[in-house]
Amino acid sequence: MYVTPEACEALSELLARRAQPERCLRLSTVQGNYRFVLDEAIEQDVSFEHAGRVVLVVSETVSRDLWGITVDCDETAGKRKLIFRKAKGDEPFDTTKEEPDPVPPGWKAQEHERLLAEIAEIGRQIAALRGGSKAMLRDQLQTLELAKQAKWDAIRALWAGDGGWHRRQAALAAEAE
């Protein structure tokens, strides 16, 4: 999601009419529809400023849902209206917090492929177990399903951007040696 300077200016003008200067607008979802509500910024928000004032905040989750969307202004019949539109070629598709991702994207992609291969191998092991005794099969299936879930959790953590995944893996590898 990207917010144009014109949209930030319009939001600032809208907020100028409010009595509470510490408040800003929050873009949120209500029953699948996006709307602006008066709120306060929190640390996890992606925030947009105009003239030194935070005018709009969006949770990172909502921001990701709006990837490739631009909040802009449209002037129709002399009235300025906020609109949502697809991003143009020269606009960023997403505005993120200014914290750089310490994990190289290539490493993430490589780890993702490795974890998917491990999940596929667990799936083959599960398929091979289908002919064993029920008690032993149940225990082995449960162990394999837990291992598979742990791999999916690792993929989610990998792409969540916590930056610590590669350090945890290096520590685990060092302990295993």
Give the low-pLDDT segments: none
In the sheet with the most strands, the strands line up as: 3-2-5-4
Instruction: Tell me the total number of β-strands.
Output: 7
Please, how many helices? 5
| Average pLDDT figure | 80
Largest sheet: 4 strands, mixed
Quote the beta fraction: 15-25%
Helicity level: 40-55%
What's the alpha carbon Rg, rounded to whole Å?
Answer: 23 Å
Instruction: Assign the structural class, choosing from mainly alpha, mainly beta, alpha/beta, alpha+beta, or little secondary structure.
Output: alpha/beta
Globally, the shape reads elongated
Report, as a whole number of angstroms, the end-to-end distance.
45 Å
Question: What does it look like?
Answer:
With about 180 residues, this protein is α/β, with parallel strands linked by helices. About 45% of the residues lie in helices and about 25% in strands. The strands form two sheets. It has a four-stranded mixed beta sheet with strand order 3-2-5-4. It has a three-stranded mixed beta sheet with strand order 1-6-7. Strand 6 and strand 7 form a beta hairpin. Helix 3 runs antiparallel to helix 4. The longest helix is centred in the C-terminal third of the chain and has 27 residues. The two termini are about 45 Å apart. The mean pLDDT is about 80.
Per-chain topology:
Elements (H helix, E strand, L loop, with lengths): L1 E2 L1 H12 L7 E7 L2 E7 L6 E5 L2 E6 L1 H6 L3 E8 L2 E8 L18 H25 L4 H27 L4 H12 L1
Parallel strand pairs: 1-6, 2-5
Antiparallel strand pairs: 2-3, 4-5, 6-7
Notable characteristics:
177 residues; alpha/beta; four-stranded mixed β-sheet; three-stranded mixed β-sheet; 5 helices; 7 strands
